[in-house]
């Protein structure tokens, strides 16, 4: 049984819509069919729709790529199938953002996830091959996002990462509403160490402060641990 708060949210608010445009929809079946992302859809808090670009290709081979003008290695995703797909989706409702997953986009972080979790309807275009015809980016894309300084075979896994980070922030998705607020990066600090039972294992003990029941002292300890861990591992976050 789902928490009553989540049920009320699902009842009175329209679910967030995420539309993912891809040439390989099979890659996206598993991430949304399990765990938190599956439950979020079952609760009616989010709708995830996967759209195959090949369905919008008009030739008999369902082509979606062609050689690059000017030569060079690799194929380029063609405009027409992508444009047909985007315009079809736009005809069913306005998008808050049409996002292109690309290595040269802005670096995705927790602050962007927070902001995007409040949107109602987004589309995510997954790049493939050597990328998409630049005119798609110029005329349809409103935001370009990268999940890191490396190149994947396609944007599908990156789109799943972004979707996961967004969906878990939607009110009612997590059973503990405060859990997402204490994640790493929410306040530019890494999360502190966490422990669970048993309190002692092979002589390795949980810090006494966590067993004290003194909530203010525990909170202070966690803050200090977060600060120290961030200083050692990600000092750049403290500079920000």
Spell out the key features of this protein.
240 residues, Alpha/beta knot, 2 domains, 5-stranded parallel beta sheet, 9 strands, 19% strand
What does the secondary structure layout of this molecule look like, with pairings?
Elements: H1 4-12, E1 16-22, H2 35-42, E2 46-52, E3 65-67, E4 75-77, H3 79-90, E5 97-107, H4 110-116, E6 121-126, H5 134-139, E7 143-146, H6 156-167, E8 200-201, E9 204-205, H7 215-233, H8 235-239
Parallel strand pairs: 1-2, 1-6, 5-6, 5-7
Antiparallel strand pairs: 3-4, 8-9
Question: What does this 3D model show about the protein?
Answer:
The protein has helices spanning 4-12, 35-42, 79-90, 110-116, 134-139, 156-167, 215-233, 235-239; strands at residues 16-22, 46-52, 65-67, 75-77, 97-107, 121-126, 143-146, 200-201, 204-205. Strand 8 (200-201) and strand 9 form a beta hairpin. The longest helix is centred in the last third of the chain and has 19 residues, at 215-233. It folds into 2 domains: 14-167, SPOUT methyltransferase, trefoil knot domain (Alpha/beta knot, 3-Layer(aba) Sandwich), CATH 3.40.1280; 184-239, Orthogonal Bundle (Trp Operon Repressor, Chain A), CATH 1.10.1270.20. It has 240 residues and is α/β, with parallel strands linked by helices. The strands form 3 sheets. Strands 2-1-6-5-7 form a 5-stranded parallel beta sheet, with helices on both faces. A two-stranded antiparallel ribbon has the order 3-4. The protein has a two-stranded antiparallel ribbon with strand order 8-9. It contains 8 helices and 9 strands. The mean pLDDT is 92. Helices cover 32% and strands 19% of the residues.
């Amino acid at each position: 049984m789902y928490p009553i708060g989540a049920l009320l949210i699902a009842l009175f608010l329209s679910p967030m819509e995420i539309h993912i445009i891809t040439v390989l929809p099979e890659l996206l079946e598993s991430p949304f069919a399990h765990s938190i992302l599956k439950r979020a859809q079952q609760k009616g808090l989010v709708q995830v729709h996967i759209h195959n670009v090949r369905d919008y290709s008009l030739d008999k081979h369902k082509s979606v790529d062609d050689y690059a003008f000017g030569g060079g290695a690799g194929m380029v995703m063609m405009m027409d199938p992508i444009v047909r797909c985007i315009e079809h989706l736009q005809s069913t409702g306005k998008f808050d953002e049409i996002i292109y997953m690309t290595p040269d986009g802005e670096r995705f972080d927790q602050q962007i996830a927070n902001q995007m979790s409040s949107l109602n309807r987004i589309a995510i275009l997954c790049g493939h091959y050597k990328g998409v015809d630049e005119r798609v980016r110029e005329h349809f894309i409103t935001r370009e996002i990268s999940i890191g300084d490396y190149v994947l075979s396609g944007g599908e896994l990156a789109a799943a990462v972004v979707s996961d980070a967004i969906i878990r922030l939607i009110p009612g998705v997590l059973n503990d509403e405060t859990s997402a607020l204490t994640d790493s990066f929410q306040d530019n600090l890494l999360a502190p160490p966490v422990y669970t039972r048993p309190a002692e294992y092979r002589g390795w003990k949980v810090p006494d402060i966590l067993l004290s029941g003194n909530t203010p002292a525990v909170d202070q300890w966690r803050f200090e641990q977060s600060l120290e861990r961030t200083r050692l591992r990600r000092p750049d976050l403290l500079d920000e």
